[in-house]
Fold each of these.
Amino acid sequence: MRTNRIREPFGDRVFLAGIYLLLTIITLIVLYPLLYIVSSSLSSPRAVVSGSVWLFPVELSFKAYERIFHSTQLMLGYYNSIVYTFFGTLINVTFTVLMAFPLAQRHFYGRNFFMILMMITVFFSGGLIPTYLLVKNLHMLDTRWALWLPGAMSVFQVIVARTFFQTSIPSELQDAAKIDGCGDTGYLVRIVLPLSKPILAVMSLMYAVGHWNAYFDALIYLRSEHLFPLQYVLRNILILNSTDPEMLANTHQQLRDQGFEQVLKYALIVVASIPVLLVYPFVQKHFVKGVMIGSLKG
Amino acid sequence: MNKPVWVKMRHCWELYLMVLLPVVYLIIFKYTPMFGVLIAFKQYNVIDGILGSPWVGFQHFEAFFRSPNFWLLIKNTLGISFYSLLAGFPIPILLALALNEVRSRLFKRTVQMVTYAPHFISTVVMVSIIILMLTPHVGVVERLFQLLGLPTTNFMGEPGLFKSIYVWSGVWQEMGYASIIYMAALASVDPALYEAARIDGASRLKKMIHIDFPALIPISVILLILNLGSVMSVGFEKIYLMQNPLNISTSEVISTYVYKVGLLNANFSFSTAVGLFNSVVNLILLVSVNFVARRISENSLW
C-alpha cells in the first residue's frame, strides 16, 4: 500500500503541517479555559486564591459541589429550568411542525399568504416595550406562561423544517398515502414525522438550549423567587455577587476569606453547563443538515 | 386544475386546522405588539392604555436625537458591531478552510467537538467566566500576563478594553459553531475540480485559494448582508451583564439603553421610540446592503 502512494510535494507537506499546528493551537485555546474552570472548581479555596491552579486541580476538594446541592435556591432554580425547558421545547416543536408542514404542501391553498404573514414578523417587530405591555395586559406577568408563549415559534426553525419536508421526503409517499385513504393529518403523523427524526432532534436541541440558557425573559417578566430559572439565580450569584447565605453558612470565616466564594462560582459554572454539554455531542452529527437546509433559498 | 376556490380550500381543511394555532400565535404575540408601537408617538400612561393616551407626534424622537446620550450610543453600538464583524466574520471562514484540509477523521472530529462546545454555554455563564478570569489578583489572565511580563490592570473596569473583551470572548465562543455552515458549503464542492487541479499540478494552497475559497463566496455574501443589516442591534444580553459603573461610557448601547429607560424607569413611550428608530435604521440598512450586493455580486437575500 505504502509504496503505491505518491508522496506529496514538500511544499504541500509543510503547508499541511502548518494547518495541523494552527488547528491544534486553536483547540487548545478553546479547551484551556474550560479545563481551568473544572479544575478550579475541584481545588481548595486556598489553592485557587494563591494562584497555584494552572491546569489540574490542586488539593482536590468537592466541598463546593456539596454546598451547591444543599442550596434550596439553586435546586429550585434547577427544577424551574427543567420545567421551562421541557414544556417550552414541547410547545416550540409543536408550533413549528404545525406551521412548517402545511407550508410544505403544494396543494395548500393560500400557502403564499401564510408564508408572507410569517415572514413579515422577521422584518418588523414591536420591540421590547410593546411586547412587555402585551404580556402584562394578558395577565401573564410573573407566571410560567410568560416564558413559554411569547417565543413559542422561531421563523428560522419553521423554514428549516419546511425545507426539510419539501426536499427530503419524496412526494410519491404522499401520493401513495392518499391512494390508501390517508388524509393530511395521518400523512404527517404516520409518515412525515417518523422520517424527520434528525431534523426534529436538532430543532429540539436548539430550542431546549435556548430555554435552558435564557435569562432575559425571566429578568423582565418574573418577580417571584419561586419561579426563577437557574440562569437568573446564577446571574444574581455570579455577576451581582449576592451569594446565597445558605451556601456559605457553617463555613469558617477564615475559609470564606480564602475565597470559598471563588471556588463556589467555578463549581456553579460547571453545574449549570453540564446538562447541555452532555447532550450536544449526540446531536452534533446532524448539525450540518440543520444549518444547511436553513440556508437554502425559497 | 381550475376548480373553484372553495373546492381547493375544502381539499386541505386539515392543513388549515393545523396552521390555526401558529397563526393565532403570530397575530397575538407578533402583530399586536407591532400595533403597540403606536405608543412611540403618544404619551403613554397606564390608565388610558395604548389607544386612549394622547398623541404627541415626534416629540420622543426629537428628545432622543437631542439628548447628550445620542451620539455616544450610536458610537458605542456601531463601534462594537463593526469590531465584532471585522474579527468574527473571517475567522470561522479560515477555520473551515483549515479543517477542510485535514484528512485524519479523529483529529477533525476532536477539533470540531471542542470548538463547537462553547456555543452552548449560556450568556450568564460566559460573562461569569470572563469576570472570574479577569478578576484582579486571583484571575488566571492576570497571572498569565505577569508570567509573560506584560502590564496588568483591572480589565473589566477599563473603558478602553471593553470592546476587545466583548469581541474576542465572542470569537472564542462562536468561531467553531459559525464555521459549520462553511464546512457544509465546502462539502458540496465537486470533487472533479480537485482532480483537475491535481492533474495540473496545483499545490494545496493553490487549491484552497482557487477552489475552496470561491465556493464559500455565495454563502459569505449572504451572511455578510445579514450581519450588516443588524449592525445597529448589538445583543442586549451579554453587554448588559458585562456592564459596570466603571466601563459604562463605552459599554452603553441602544438595546441596553432601551431596557433601562423603558422598564427600569418606566418611560414606556420614549423607550419605544428609541427601539423603533433602531429597527427602522436596521431595515433600511438591510434593504440597501442587499441592493448593493445584488448589483455587484449576484448573491442576495431576495
Amino acid sequence: MIALVKRDLILALRAGGGFGLALAFYLILVSLVPLAVGPETGRLAEIAPGILWLGALLANLLSLDRIFQLDWEDGALEGLATAPLPLEGIALAKALAHWLSVGLPLAVLAPVLAVLLNLPGAAIPWLVAALVLGTPALSMIGTFGAALTVGVKRGGLLLSLLVLPLYVPSLIFGALTVARAATEQDPLPSLALVAGLSMASWAGLPFAAAGALRINLR
Amino acid sequence: MLIEVDNLAGGRAGLQLFDGLSFTLRPGEALRISGPNGTGKSTLLRILAGLTPAMGGAIRMPPETLLYTGHGDGLKSALSTRENLAFWAGLYGDASEHTLSHALERFDLTGLAERRIAELSAGQRRRASLARLALSARPLWFLDEPTTSLDPAQSARFEAILAAHLIAGGGAIIASHLEVAPCTAELDLSDYQARRALPDDLFAMEDIAVDAAPVQTRRGTL
C-alpha cells in the first residue's frame, strides 16, 4: 500500500502530473474574484469563506479522473486487482495519494489566498483546519466516483455529475465553519461535522469503490 | 495441483464464447491457449485470474497463487524502469535491492534501468513488463501474448526463464498464437466454442468479426 501511495505521489510531482494544475486553478480562480465582484474589502470578506471553499472543491474535481483512468489505460489496474493487496486497500491508497497531492497543498495555499480576499485574520486558522479535515472527504468521494466511471471514455462530465452532489455537505459545513469564525461565532460544531463527513467517507467508501472497480474490470 | 478447471463456460459482453472446458495443471506444467481471434483466449485468462466472472463451471486454485500480465504493460512512462519495477516489487511485498537487480538482470534490462519507460522501444517495454514475473514468488503465471514485439533472441531468453520457472515447480497458462517452447500442452479454444442458435449467415460473419459491432449483432439475435 505504501508502494502505491509513493508511486502515485511521484507521478503527481513529475511532468504531466495533476499536482500543479489544481493549485494553479485555485490560485487563478481566487485571484480573479476581486476583479469580478469589485475590490470593496467589506464585500470580499463577506464572500471569502464561500469562495475559498468552492475554489478548493473545484480544484479538487479537476484531477479526479486521473485517479484510476491512467492505470486502467496502461493495464496497471488489472495488475493491481490481482496483486496481494485487496481492492479496498488500493482504493484507500489511491484516495490517500490524491489527498496528499491535491487536498493538503490546497489547504496550505488557502491562507495566502485568504489574505487576497481580505478574510479576517481570526478565521484563517479555522480555514486551514476546515480544509485539512474536509478535503479528505472530497478525495475519498472522488475516488469512489473515479472508480464508478473508470471504463467510460471522456467520463469527466459523468464523474463531476456523480460526485458534486456528494460534495455538497462538506462544502456547506466547511464554508460555514470559516464564515462563523469570521463573524466571531463558535465554528467548532460545523468543523466537527466536516471532520465527521471525512471519517464516514473513509470508513465506508473504500468498499463501494472496490465494488465499482470489480464491476468495471469485467 | 496449481489449478483445476471443471466444465468452465465463459464469454464477454454477455456473449458466451466457450463452454465445457476442463483441465488441471500440476507444478512444472505449462499450457498454451491457442485459437483464432475472438475465441476467448484473453477472456479465459481473465476468468482464471478472477477479473471476469465465469458463466458456469468451477475453478479451484490455492490462494495467493496467480500472477497476471495482460495486454497492457502496466508501466508508467514518466518513471524509470527501475522505479516501475520497484513499485510492483513493493506491491508484491519484497522491494529489496537484490530482488530488483536480479529481475533487471534476468530480463536483460540492467542497461535500461535508469531510462524512463517513455524512451524505450515496444520490445524493451514488453520485457520491462515481463520482469514483474521475477519480482513475485507466486507460482502460477497467466500471460497474455507475452512474446509480442520481442525479437527472436529475447523470445528465447523469455522461454529460458519460463523453463527455469517450470523446473522450480511453477506453472504457466499462456495465451499466444506463437509457439512457446516450454509449454507442455496446448488447448485450442476453437474446439470448445459455445453452441449458439444462430442463422448460418451470422456464423459466416464471425470470420470477419473484429470487435464490438458484430458482438452487438449477435447478442441482438440471442
Amino acid sequence: MRRAWWLVLALRAAAAAAQTPPPSGDEIVRRVDANMFAESRIMTSQMIVHGERETRTIESKTWQRGTPDAYTEYLAPARERGTKMLKLGDELWTYDPGTDRTIMISGSMLRQSVMGSDLSYEDMMEDPRLERSYAAAVAGTEDVHGRRCWVVQLTAKVEGLAYETRRVWVDAERWVPLREDLYARSGRLLKTIRLGDVRQVEGRWVPMHAAYRDVMKTGGGTEFVIETIAFDAPLPAYLFSKAALRR
Amino acid sequence: MIRFLLKGLLRDRSRSMFPALTVAAGVMLTVFVFAWLRGMEASLLQSTAHLSSGHVRVTTAAYVADADQMPNDLALLGVDTLLAGLRARYPGLSWTPRITFGGLLDVPDARGETRTQAPVAGLGVDLLSPGSPEPRMLRLAAALVRGRLPARRGEVLISDELAARLSIPLGQTVTLIGSTMNGAMALANFEVVGTVRFGVGPMDHSALVADLADVQSALDMANGAASILGFFRDDVYHEREADSVAARFDAAHRSTDKYRPVMETLREASGLADLLDYLTLVLNLAIGFFVLAMSIVLWNAGLMGSLRRYGEIGVRLAVGEDQGHVYRAMLLEAVAIGLVGSLVGTGLGLAASYVLEVHGLNVSAIMKDNAMMMEDVLRPRVTPGAALVGFVPGLLSTVIGAGISGLGIYKRQTSQLFKELEA
C-alpha cells in the first residue's frame, strides 16, 4: 500500500513537470543577459577576416566596464598595432598611431566595417543587453549542434537600433545564444552569427568562437575567437578617457 | 564667256549678291558650329582621358562592373609585373598606374582635434618618379594656383576651392580618412603644399592629388592600383588603334577569374560612347539640314531669278541659243556664286572660330554643377575638316538650287517665245 502511495506521488510530480509552461521570451533573454554580462571583462581575442582575396588575423585586447564602456587595443598585425578604440556610452573614438590622431566615429562612418571584418562600428555601439532593447517572444524549439534551443523572436522596443528584429537560438540549459539572424526593418536578412566552442568560465557559459557573416558582403565571413577572458577583474580607471588613447 | 558671266554676277545684285550672301552666311554658320562641336568633343575627350580614363585603361573585370563606386577592394594587384608587360608589348603608348578613391579630409586644430571635415575625390598618381607623364597629363604646373607641386612623399595638392572652403593654409597637415582595400578604416597624414584649379567642375570641387606610393601605403594597396592608364604618345585618341590594342590585350588575358585584367578604350571606360555618337549625329544632321535649307532657299532664289530673267532667257532662246547651253550657263553661274559664297563663308567661319579658339569662352557659371570631365573654358577647334565641311555643301546647294529651278528652261516652247516677248 505504501509503495503504491509513492508511485502515485511520483506520477503526479512527473505530470506537474510536464505541464510546467516554457519560460517567456523575456525570461530567456534575462537569463542570457545574466549569463553573458558582468561588471567588468578583460579579454584577448583574434578576429580572422576571410576576405575574397586574402585572410587576415587581427589580435586585440579589450577592457570592458559594464556594458557602456570599452577600451580596445589592437596588437597585431603590424599595420594595426597600436590602434585603439574607446567606447564611452554612445560615443566611439579611434586613435591611429601612424597619424597620432584621435577621430570620433559618428554618422555614416558608424556603418563602416571594423578592420574590414563583417562587423560594423554600429554593431559595437549596440547595447549588448538584449533585454533593454528588444521585446522577446518564444517562437518554438530547435536543435543546434545537437543542443536543444529556444527560438526567440526579438523585436526592437527602442528607436535607432541597427537591427529591427533578431531571431536567436538560445541553449535551453546553458542560456547561451548559439545562433542569431539579424534583420533590417524591411525584413531583409543583414547578418548571421553562429556561436560555438561553449566553455564554462568562472561559472558562466561563454561561446569562445563566433562566426559573423554580413550577407551584403562577399568573402568568407569573420571569425571571432576569444583566447582569454576574465570576469569582474579590477580595471584601471585611466583607460576610460580620451587621454588614454595616446598613451 | 566666263568673264561675261562674272561681270553679270557682280553687277546684278539681286541675281548674284543675295544668293552669294545667303551661301556665305550658311557656310559660316556651318563651319562655326562644326568647329565648336569638334572643340567640345576634343575637350571632353582630352579632359576625360587625362583626368579619368586614359586613352585605354587596364583594370580588373570585377572593378569594371562597379567602377562608379571606385571599388578599390577589386583593384589590380601585382602592378609592377603588369606594367612591365604593357610597356614591353605596347610601346606606342605610355603607361601609368593610378588610384582613385574617396574619403574625408579631416583638418585638425592646434590641439589635434577635428576642426572641420569635407569629402574629397582623391587621385593617387605617380608624381615623383623622374619622367613620369602624370604632371604633364594633369597639367599640374598650369593648374597650380598657390604653392608648389609635391617634391617628396607625404605632400599633396588640393583643389583651391576646397582649400578656401575649409580655410586650409599652405603647409597645413591634414588627415585623410578613407578605406583600405580590405575595407578597414585608413588614416594618413599629408602636408598641403599647393592648391590647384583644373577648370573641371567635379575635380575643382573636392580634388586631392597625392603621390601614388603614398596612396598605396595609406590604403594598404601594396603594388596595387585601381587602374593602369595608357596614353598615345601624340596625346590624341586614335579609336581604331585603341580598339585593336584592347582586343589584343583581352585576347591574351582571357579567363573566368573576376580579378583578371581587362582593357577598355576611352569610349568604353568613360561611358562617353553614347555622347560621342550623339555629337557625331548632331554634326551630320546640322550639315544635312544646312544643305537642304540652302538648296530650298537657293532654289527659291533661282525661281525668282528665272522669273526676273524670263525675258532674257526668252531672247537667248529666241536668237537660237540651245536650251542645254542656257541651262549649263545658269549652272556655271551657280558654281561661281557658290564658290564666292562658300569661300567668304568659310573664311569668316574659320576666322570667328579661330578667335574663340585663342581666347576661349568661359562657361564656368553654367558648368559649376556639371558632373562631366569637361573644361569650363570652351574653345572651338579649327581643323582642315572645318574648312571643307561648309565649303562643299555651300557649293552643292547653289548648284542643286540652280539645277532644279533651271529645269523650267526646258519647258519653254520656241514657237511661243515671240508671242511671250511681244506681250
